[in-house]
Every structure is written in structure tokens, then in C-alpha cells.
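Quick board copy: two proteins, each given as sequence then C-alpha cells.
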Amino acid sequence: YPPSFTDARAEVYKTIGDTKLSLSIFEPPAAVTKTNRPAIIFFFGGGWTNGSPAQFEQHCRALAARGMVAITADYRVASRHQIKPTDCVADAKSAARWVRANAARLGIDPERIVVGGGSAGGHLAASTATLPGLDTAKDDKSITCLPNALVLFNPATVLATFPGLDLKGFGVGLSKEKFGCEPEEISPLHHVKKGTPPTIIFHGKADTTVPYSTVEKFAEVMKAAGNRCD
């Protein structure tokens, strides 16, 4: 660990102590123009505890073949770095800022950066678009981490109680001790507002880990705020 991928190059986006966090970048075919290309960044799932950037290798290959600069990101997790989910959010925001800051060099259109992920990685993607604060202190806050669109797979969008929503047991154990902050601070649903980026969610109704009702509520609140959510 970390994994390496044929035909992808790794670039370090953040160093914390002895830990270097990298992005694996898959380029479109040579025939595609090298400037102003859309990009997508993926964050893997694993409950903020484990997981690997390899989860989204095939997604990256498929989208790169269609002309996107496709990136799968590493970030700190509890099993390897003894951290809290707040640190995972900080890393995700750093990664999104790094891609936008380096957009010209990478041949990326800074106004067409998509952020995506699955499960806990879906939570991180949604966090870049919704959560105030939880930034790394040395990040350049003048560069926004706000994506231009979100692609979420079975995402954890609700991490605290919400009016009219039965968390079906999912809320058990959602605490300040677990997250490193109050649950509401790290819950994307609680911070949806007008201007939250257009979002598409892929989720299974039989999911026993992240209740389907939570993304239904997220979509409802998004639309009520005037945002697109499919």
C-alpha cells in the first residue's frame, strides 16, 4: 500500500508528518485535447477505517477513455493512521483544492471538476460540497473545494438525527467521540443550501448499511433548496 496503477501517474497532494497522500491520475487518449478537460475525483469507501483507491480504478479507466481526467484519491483512514472522520473530510477538501489549484498544469477546466465516491467516500465527496470548516489549517482557503457536480454511490449523507427521517438503527453510535466533532457538523444533509452542486446518486433499496431512505431525504432537501438531485 498504496496501490499503483498501470497507465496512471501518482502525484502527492498533501503531506502530514511522515504521511504522503497521493492522487492517481488517469489521462484520456492522446487524441483528446490537452486543455480544459473535465475531471473527476473519486474517494473510496470503507467506513473511514480502511479501503483503497483501487476501488475506483475501473471507473477511472472508463471515464478517461471517454475524455475525462479521472483521479482516484488516497486519504487517511483509522486503521492506517489512527484518525477520525473529521481528518478524512479535511483530506478530501485538500484533494479537491489541489486539483483546482493545479488545473491549468493538468489540462483541466477548473469549472468542470466532479467529485464522487462510494459509502464513506460518498460522504467525503458530499462533504466537499456542503460542510463548512473541517479544513486543514495550511490549505489555501482562497481556492474553493466546491465541486461543480457530485456523483455518489450508496453515500452516507446523513450522520445525525433529522426531522421526519427514521435512520432505522443507522444513528446508533453516531457521536462526537466517533467523528471528532458533533454529528451535525459532519452530516452533509444538515448543510444543504441553494447552490449545492447538481448531484446524481446510485443506491440500492436493499442496502442494509446505509438506509435508502437517507438518500431519498437528501434528494428531497436538495430539490426543496432549488438544486438538482437525481
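And the next:
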Amino acid sequence: ALFTQSGGNVTLSNTGANENYGNFDLESGRQLILSSSTLNNTGTFNLNGAVISGTGTLVNSGGGTIAGRGTISSNFNNDGGVLLVENGTTNVTKAFSNSGLIQLTSATANLTGGAITNTGSIEGRGNVGNNIANSGIIEAIGGTLTLGGTVNNNTGGLMTASTGNKLLVTKGM
């Protein structure tokens, strides 16, 4: 299935189960508004410079991918899915939990916004500006991974960079 947003904002306001198993292509400069609704993603969301907003919750479950530049200002939980941060900025404005994978794919990949409670994995190269409470894995792969927020590496947390890679923690731990 494919949903392509075109020409306006889209509001999801029902109270039943809302699932995405296919492809959801948002339109640059537009909004997907989750009005008190929860949307469970096990497909692919292409942010394309759009905004996911509202009082509802976007849950990125196992098998789900959210990719590209854009903003998530609704409640958000990366519950086993992949948050793919490519060239440009992905802004998740509220604090969120990550039990899946946050993958940064280039030196110009930039994740910003609310604090991250990480029990999954944050990996790649680029910049994470969020504060992080880490009980999972943070790993530099393919170059320098810069952590621009405050990092608390809790019991069980692992921060690593293999030969040829660098993990740069600018505000300390």
C-alpha cells in the first residue's frame, strides 16, 4: 500500500487501531496531525521535510522505518523500529524512548530535539544533539559520531568506536 500526501495537511482523529504496513510519503512543508490517536508504523514513513504533530503518538515498531529530514512533534516511541537519519536534520522535539535502532548515515546527518532514553542502538556517523540516557549501545561506524548533548552512560550501556572511527562527546558524560 502507498499513501502519498498531496496538497494539504492530513488529520488522523479516530480512536480505533491505526496501522501503517506500507509506504507513507509525506509532503514537504505539510503536516500529518495525530489528534489524540496512536499510529503504529511497521512500514516506511518518508518525512520529506514534513511535520508529524498533534497530541497523539507515533510508535515505530519492529519492521518499521522512519526516514529523512523533517520534524516529529507528536509523542514518539521508537519501539524496535529504525529511525534513519540521512542528510539534513531530523528533529524529534519531545523526549522519547529508543529500543530499536537510530542510524545516522552521513557526516551531514543531524538528529536534534528531546532527550533520548536508549536501550537499543544509536550508530553511524553524524551528529546527535539530544541529551541521552544510555543503557544500550552507542557506536561510531563509518567516521565520527558526535554526541552534542549530555550523555549519561548507565549500567549496561556501551559506547564504542572501532579503529578508524571516532566517538566525540562534546558536553561530557
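Board note added afterward: The two ends are 44 Å apart (CA to CA).
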